[in-house]
């Protein structure tokens, strides 16, 4: 057995109604660990040969729910949801906070691979050795909050019944809302009411499989570790270090709505037309006084408690969400010209309940509002006016997107694909207003001011606009380090640079250090992700000479604030990008060189695919 | 005077570090299912910590057909795992259904306050959360905490989300 691992991955084939298990060789685990890394490897092995023909929303795609060796042990819990992304056509390791991670490992599994497509709506129920595909007919169409009143309650009753009536814990589940069911490309996989794996669009992948939810109950202990005494000692040290963090514990990232804009000039305002503001209406003080009903809210093992429970009453109804965190303050707020705390929480609660990614959707809404402002989209196209700051108009748009009504059907394809459609519909190139990279809307961190993200970050990422996976200089940080966090799996807000490598060694017994990770493991994972991303298809293919770039908007000078006039430069982006590729052992197109493939032991698996990409780029 | 664990619902963040600590101390492993203290989150954001309140009624002890539950000299509840047959009578007898069966060894698990200094309380206070604390009193009001957790959760939900919290 391998320390730190349950030793088995469940394989559920929904087309054949068949449940099997697979194990992964220790040699592979040593390199890819779990989560994002292992996901990329499994996808390469299973789908690599026909990648460009795999429809992300077809039965041939796989949906992976993976844990990592640190899940349950290291403070803060995450799982990774992955597969071929319907946004980038590559692989996105999308992280989600859910107790399903610790339950899976306690049930004896390191993850679940879902294949095929069920004829009727189903959910998967796992309880130790017993794995069932159950009908979800009556849950289909439900929003997150309804699902908790029904499915979650029924699972709880079942658990209580099976344990002689004890007041047992709830059965954790991950699920999709109506957005995922309707194959909206900005749909997320949800947990609890408001936690989301947004980047990648895996909610739509779940929907395409007719899979409403996965619920897991594990009754055993976590897998054995290599050095239990050390793990326990380090756990205590890390808990202590984390519990004394002020900002994250008290404010989460909820202070960002004001400070990222004011201090860093890097907050999206009105579809990134500006990045600086001094609007104190969006300050954390208003959120904590008026919205946050629960100040400290953490998931399993997390001493940081960055999540806050928010409650807003509007028109006799109650809207609940977490924080909203900085990303949603920006994307359900400033990016739409909305600065009022209540309105931001209200829109956030709506996207959460529908199972939409707040970042991707907020980016899309801002894009629409700018097209309306510019007169490219009109009231005739939309059915009503969409002006900056008009919360109700944005709410109506969200509903149209979720239901794919009217123009909502086009918008449900995400910012990039919608931009292509609108361009051909209107005969105007609207791609310039789409603030996205490789099909993925950029996170709420701008690059123009030079005080936040770096100019080349989004251009070079294998996960496009994903702000959690942005390369940065020095190159051993940023995306290279994130591949570790997302594979081991550790939350980026609980990771302790001081103890993390010792901790990983104590759990797995693997000789892993930051140097080794940077030199080998990260390069292997990123190389796989990069090649699959460039293989792309079937609807869209990326050309590194065109698409390894940041949104055009970032080349326009900032119009306001202390950094007024600053803009990204094409030379800087290009230069840093090439240096980064060189650092990873890639050529100028960002393709791994023969030597790199040899060195990483990926020659057999990746070489034919690299050749395929080259051939396409040459033609 | 009896020691018991007071639970401050308002302060509990649901981090479940107490569960981790409990299973480490009693079983040497991270094992949610055997934790004597449990954090329930039936409704997202509504966290209900439950643990034996060492009530003065001792419903579990009185109901046990095997005499497997006893009090030590400090008045703390213990389960004799040799005698316990895992019948589950104590679970039904407890108004809050707090005892839980060991999933592998089939005997009842009830908090024994770690002999007087509960590890869960220690870590909760050590990390500055103070959602749990040890109280030493004969106050029979602790008996009133013995209520069906589903009802407790409903009340906490109402306090947090309001009476129309269900409507979306």
What does this structure look like?
The complex is a heterodimer of chains A (619) and B (168). Chain A has 619 residues and is α+β, with helices and mostly antiparallel strands. Chain A has a domain at 242-413: Aldehyde Ferredoxin Oxidoreductase Protein, subunit A, domain 2, CATH 1.10.569.10. Chain A has 25 helices and 17 strands. Chain A has a 6-stranded mixed sheet, sandwiched between helices. Chain A is globular. Chain A starts with 8 loop residues before the first strand and ends with a helix. The relative contact order of chain A is 0.13. Chain B has 168 residues and is an alpha+beta fold. Chain B has one domain: 2-Layer Sandwich (Alpha-Beta Plaits). Chain B has 5 helices and 8 strands, in the order E-H-E-E-H-E-E-H-E-E-H-E-H. Chain B has helices at residues 17-27, 59-63, 89-93, 119-126, 149-161; strands at residues 2-7, 38-43, 46-50, 69-71, 77-79, 100-101, 108-109, 132-137. Chain B has a two-stranded antiparallel sheet. The longest helix of chain B is centred in the last third of the chain and has 13 residues, at 149-161. The mean pLDDT of chain B is 94. Chains A and B meet through helix 3, helix 4, helix 7, strand 13 and strand 14 of A and helix 1, strand 2, strand 6 and helix 5 of B.
Report the C-alpha radius of gyration of chain B, rounded: 16 Å
Number of helices of chain A: 25
| Count of DSSP strands of chain A | 17
CATH topology of the domain at 242-413 in chain A: Aldehyde Ferredoxin Oxidoreductase Protein, subunit A, domain 2
Q: What best-fitting shape of chain A do the alpha-carbon axes yield? A: globular
Give me the number of helical elements of chain B.
5
**What is the helix content of chain B?**
25-40%
Extract low-pLDDT stretches of chain A.
none
Would you tell me the overall average pLDDT of chain B?
94
CATH class of chain B: Alpha Beta
Structural class of chain A: alpha+beta
> What's the N-to-C terminus distance of chain A?
48 Å
- How does the major sheet of chain B shape up? 2 strands, antiparallel
Q: Classify the beta-strand content of chain B into a percent band.
A: 15-25%
CATH architectural arrangement of chain B: 2-Layer Sandwich
Report the C-alpha radius of gyration of chain A, rounded: 23 Å
Q: What's the end-to-end separation of chain B, in Å?
A: 48 Å
Find the CATH topology of chain B: Alpha-Beta Plaits
State the largest interface: A-B, 59 and 53 residues
Name of the top-level CATH class of the domain at 242-413 in chain A: Mainly Alpha
């Amino acid at each position: 057995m391998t320390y730190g691992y349950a030793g088995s991955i469940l394989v559920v084939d929904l087309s054949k109604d068949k449940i099997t298990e697979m194990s992964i060789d220790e040699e592979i685990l040593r390199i890819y660990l779990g989560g994002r890394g292992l996901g990329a490897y499994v996808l390469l092995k299973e789908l690599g040969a026909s990648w460009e023909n795999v429809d992300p929303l077809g039965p041939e795609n796989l949906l992976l729910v993976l844990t990592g060796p640190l899940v349950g042990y290291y403070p803060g819990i995450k799982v990774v949801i992955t597969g071929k992304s319907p946004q980038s056509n590559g692989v996105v390791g999308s992280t989600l906070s859910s107790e399903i991670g610790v339950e899976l490992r306690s049930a004896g599994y390191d993850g679940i691979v879902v294949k095929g497509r069920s004829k009727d709506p189903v959910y998967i129920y796992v309880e130790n050795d017993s794995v069932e595909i159950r009908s979800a007919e009556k849950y289909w169409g439900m929003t997150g909050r309804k699902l908790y009143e029904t499915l979650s309650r029924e699972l709880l009753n079942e658990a209580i019944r099976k344990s002689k009536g004890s007041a047992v814990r709830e059965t954790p589940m991950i699920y999709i809302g109506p957005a995922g069911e309707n194959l909206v490309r900005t749909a997320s996989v949800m947990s609890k009411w408001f936690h989301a794996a947004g980047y990648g669009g895996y909610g739509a992948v779940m929907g395409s499989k007719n899979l409403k939810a996965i619920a897991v109950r594990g009754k055993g202990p976590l897998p054995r570790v290599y050095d239990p005494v050390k793990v326990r000692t380090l756990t205590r040290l890390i808990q202590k270090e984390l519990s004394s963090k002020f900002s994250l514990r008290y404010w989460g990232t909820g202070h960002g709505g004001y400070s990222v804009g004011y201090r860093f000039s890097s907050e999206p305002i009105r579809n990134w037309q500006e990045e600086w503001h001094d609007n104190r209406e969006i300050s954390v003080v208003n959120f904590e006084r008026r919205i946050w009903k629960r100040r400290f809210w953490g998931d399993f093992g997390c001493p940081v408690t960055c999540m806050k429970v928010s409650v807003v009453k509007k028109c006799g109804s109650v809207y609940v969400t977490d924080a909203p965190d900085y990303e949603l303050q920006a994307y359900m707020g400033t990016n739409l010209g909305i600065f009022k705390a209540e309105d931001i929480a209200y829109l956030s609660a709506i996207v959460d309940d529908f199972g939409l990614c707040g970042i991707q959707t907020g980016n899309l809404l801002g894009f629409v509002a700018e097209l309306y402002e510019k007169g490219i989209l009109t009231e005739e196209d939309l059915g009503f006016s969409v002006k900056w700051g008009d919360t109700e108009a944005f709410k109506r748009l969200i509903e149209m997107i979720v239901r794919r009504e009217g123009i909502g059907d086009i918008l449900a394809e995400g910012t990039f694909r919608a931009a292509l459609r609108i361009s051909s519909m209107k005969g105007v190139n609207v791609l310039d207003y789409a603030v996205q990279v490789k099909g993925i809307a950029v996170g709420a961190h701008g690059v123009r001011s030079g005080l936040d993200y770096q100019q080349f970050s989004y251009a070079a990422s294998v996960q496009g606009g994903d702000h959690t996976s942005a390369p940065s200089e020095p190159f051993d940080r940023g995306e290279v380090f994130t591949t570790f966090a997302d594979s081991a799996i550790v939350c980026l807000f609980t990771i302790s640079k001081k103890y993390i490598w010792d901790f990983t060694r104590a759990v797995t017994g693997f000789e892993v250090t930051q140097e080794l990770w940077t030199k080998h493991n990260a390069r292997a994972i990123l190389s796989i992700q990069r090649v699959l991303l460039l293989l792309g298809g079937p609807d869209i293919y990326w050309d590194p000479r065109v698409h390894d770039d940041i949104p055009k908007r970032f080349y326009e000078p900032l119009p306001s604030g202390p950094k007024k006039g600053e803009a990204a430069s094409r030379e800087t982006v290009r230069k840093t990008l090439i240096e980064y590729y060189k650092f990873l052992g890639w050529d100028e197109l960002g393709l791994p060189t023969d030597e790199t493939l040899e060195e990483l032991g990926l020659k057999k698996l990746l070489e034919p695919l690299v050749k395929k990409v080259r051939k396409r780029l040459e033609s | 005077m009896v020691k018991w664990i007071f639970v401050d619902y308002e302060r509990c963040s649901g981090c479940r570090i107490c569960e981790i600590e409990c299973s480490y101390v009693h079983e040497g492993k991270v094992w949610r299912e055997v934790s004597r203290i449990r954090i329930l989150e039936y409704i997202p954001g509504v966290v209900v910590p439950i643990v034996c309140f060492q009530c003065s009624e001792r419903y579990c002890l009185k109901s046990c057909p095997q005499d497997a539950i006893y009090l030590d000299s400090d008045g703390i509840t213990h389960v004799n795992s040799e005698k316990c047959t895992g019948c589950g009578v104590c679970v039904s007898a407890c108004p809050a259904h707090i005892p839980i069966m060991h999933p592998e060894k089939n005997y009842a698990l009830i908090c024994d306050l770690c002999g007087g200094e509960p590890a869960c309380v220690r870590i909760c206070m050590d990390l500055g959360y103070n959602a749990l604390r040890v109280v030493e009193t004969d106050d029979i009001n602790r008996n009133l905490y013995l209520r069906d957790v589903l009802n407790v959760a409903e009340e906490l939900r109402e306090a947090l989300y309001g009476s129309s919290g269900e409507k979306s």
